[in-house]
Amino acid sequence: MLERALTGGTRYKKLLGVLLVFMGLGFAAYLTQWNRGLTITGLSRDVSWGLYIAQFTFLVGVAASAVMVVLPYYLHDVKAFGKITILGEFLAIASVTMCLLFIFVDLGKPMRILNVLIYPTFNSVLFWDMIVLNGYLLLNLLIGWNVLEAERKGTHYPKWVKPLIYISIPWAVSIHTVTAFLYAGLPAREYWLTAIMAARFLASAFCSGPALLIMLSYLVKKYSRFDPGKEAIDKLATIMTYAMLISVFFVGLEFFTAFYSNIPSHMDALRYLFVGLEGHHNLVPFMWLFAILAVAGVALLLHPDVRKNEKMLLAAAACVFFSMYIEKGVGLIVAGFIPNPFDKVREYSPSIPEIMIVLGIWATGFFVLSVLYKIAISVKEEVGA
Amino acid sequence: METGRRNFLKIGGICALGLGSLRVVNALGKTETPPKFMANLQGLSAKRWAMAIDMKKCWEKGPPGCTDCVLACHSTHNVPDIGTQKEEIKWIWEEKYENAFPGQQSGMEPEAIREKPFMVLCNHCKNAPCTRVCPTQATFKRADGITMMDFHRCIGCRYCMAGCPFGARSFNFRDPRPYIKTELNPTFPTRDRGVVEKCNFCEERLGAGKMPACVEACKCKALSFGDLEDPGSEVRKALGSQYSIRRKPELGTEPGVYYII
Question: What is the pTM of this model?
Fold first, then answer.
């Protein structure tokens, strides 16, 4: 099937070309980091995780795109999702690939990464995150590929794939839960020390994943002869609406606990994010943009008639996706480090090479995604689904 | 073709299994005893090493602006002076009361307490969050309570820095060697770029029968060091006679550094 990725129209080739340029720029920036160390980033002694880990955190959420189509299709027999499970699974593969790359570029000693396997440490959440992410990648590769190949041949997929499909559903929950536990179990990071962290991760994953999937499905429909189907998109929109409402509700819960209890250490990070703390307010514009996008997204999604309109739905999906991106991919990680353990505010802003590496990895993810989608769509077009 | 691929995979699988089991066979077939090494007979040992810092002694008896303990530590351990706040590397340093003990201020402290420096360092917590989160056991607890760093195993993920509630850990964002401004101590390793470092309670000196460098360097004897579980130790004597506090005790990490004010 792989050969289908090698042929394609000029548009496909141009897309890959542009992505390759960004990948090259990112790789060049990474070479500087390889030679000079993390000093080229904006990271500091006080904010020791930044954009890399934040992108990783957000993309773990996007990987939920798979489970949100697989679960209804296989457990609830929602036939409409049959056509697009492959799109969800391939998006998950691209997302998890980016996650792993973001972890890799964040390491101070990347050449020692196998130490995580050589000295397995069961009390470290990072060890378990490595297990669940790689496992999820493998599951989606096996399932996606075999199901697609069977579809091409016009046969039923092999029997051994079915148990893997069932395993992949709780496994998807585990990637968000374990990633949330990376943060939620640390004693002095007040912003992360919240019991609903894993629930927040699940909720935001279940809206940002489907949101991207809706936008991608639209592009697929527009530029290929494969139509994912209106019913599937409508159902995805419903899932996204509920998950978005729950996400916004959860953020509200954090506000209530912090501000009604009036405990300074609980309020500090939220203050820093939304109004600034001790004269530092790098993230304030971003967080207000998050708030506006979140409200706009909810407003567009609430009424079924509005979200059944294709243009409106796309706008809503974009609002949901970017608001969740800001919440997880910009605010959450940095605010965990503010104020620092000495109750001082030390801000963080990413450096240019750091941003180039980030863009390079996003381009890599979209490259993987384009190739996988090209294969899937070619097969779908051939069998005339 | 199909059979060929099948056989190839089978043979490949068997080969991989064979290679993989080599380690097991080695482990089972091992006859020679593992190499043993003797501890230095002069070495000091304890059930749990701990430190008490008598800040009053430090402020009253020490000359103003004295940083003997910091200099002794940083020169003993080849701690670099990077020169920026962003990438600062420090093992023991000064913080104000409000920063060392956030959330514990009465707001009406005497000016001396508000303005005078407190010495802060790794607390060598009994329930250390840093060792709990480390994915490679590059940071680990020793039986004598010291929280150790293995600079050769650390992958530089900085999870320990997120885990430490005391900001005790520093990361080598760049090659630290050109920035070692003190005379190089050839008996202690310098670090490489990309690893985390922090105070090690001078385990290398304890092993050779010497007190930690900071304790030895303090002329006014403000730092007492010893076995927390030995009622006759220096540290227990200091703590038994005066009121002491620890940083962020509510987190349950059980810090091993006590402050007498």
Answer: 0.92
